[in-house]
Design brief:
By secondary structure, this protein is an alpha+beta fold. It folds into two domains: 121 residues, Roll (2,3-Dihydroxybiphenyl 1,2-Dioxygenase, domain 1); 160 residues, 2,3-Dihydroxybiphenyl 1,2-Dioxygenase, domain 1 (Roll), CATH 3.10.180.10. The chain is built from five helices and 18 strands. The strands form two sheets. Strands 9, 10, 11, 12, 13, 14, 15, 16, 17 and 18 form a ten-stranded mixed β-sheet that branches. The chain has an eight-stranded mixed β-sheet with strand order 2-3-4-1-5-8-7-6, with helices on one face. It starts with 7 loop residues before the first strand and ends in a 26-residue tail after the last strand. 45% of the residues are buried. This is 3,4-dihydroxyphenylacetate 2,3-dioxygenase.
Length: 332
Amino acid sequence: MSHHPFQILRAAHAELRVSDLSKSRAFYVDALGFVVSDETSTEIYLRGVEERNHHSLILKKSDTPAVGHLGFRVASNEDVEALYQFYLQQGCYVRLREPNEEKGQGLAVLVQDPFGFPVEFFSDMTALEPYHQKYHLHRGGAVRRMDHFNLFVPNFSAAFEFWQKELGFKLTEYVETDEEPQEKTAAWLCRKPSVHDIALMKGAGPRVHHIGFWMDDMMSIIRVCDILGGAAMHEHIERGPGRHGISNAFFLYLRDPDGHRIELYTSDYLTIDPDLQPIRWSAQDPRRQTLWGHSTPESWWKEASLVLDVQTSQRVAVSDYPPNGVAAQYIK
């Protein structure tokens, strides 16, 4: 990984705009077992049972469901300032957010990145009392922690170059066509020593395909299936449970009451070694998505969440083609 003037640590939180807070609360808190850190009549701040930061998921009431932003933690406030300057130089819309502008969070930078995604970087967040051993208080699926984001991008090669070379993410696995000239169509990139903090897939965007949360083990994912089935909430299950070829993780994909896709994820592998070579998957190999070869529902390939414009709070238009603006400099 090359040296950069900032140190991004990991995927840390997401903000979802939702149409009905009570329905969303029943899904995320009662069924999946997120812990409520704070809530008002218009927003709920949630965290996994092992997370000590104030939140890893924000639910905000809105007439138009969308992804408000995706948050990454950095090592220091100096990194926040460096990222502010970096995105200014990229020609992006970017602004600093003052401490507690987002509840529980310190100084942050919010940017509409070159590919249209609303992304936030922060260092400080209010620390809360450990909850992971309060087993008597765990409920539902007892989701553990934030793990990753997966994005649909119209120009994969440009986005891949940006996240890898400009932001310093490490490639762990990728999908590539077999015919010449070979073309990468998806990539898994990390900052923490796991398979990914972010995955990029070629497709109409900018859209967020899913947000992934870590679970204890395979049985904890199966327990979520039982909870949803028992509560007559089985229609929230979109795909799985199963085992990915890519990442080797055990997974379950759910759709929340507004259609946002959530992955429950466990059992991938360590990627900290500097000489670790990326794993290539053929675009023709069905095992890349499910190691056991099961087919993937059409909705998984086509549907995803729209994202917000950080200036207007309107949803960003989706395109099948590369944008003509800032991202053009990364298009070969």
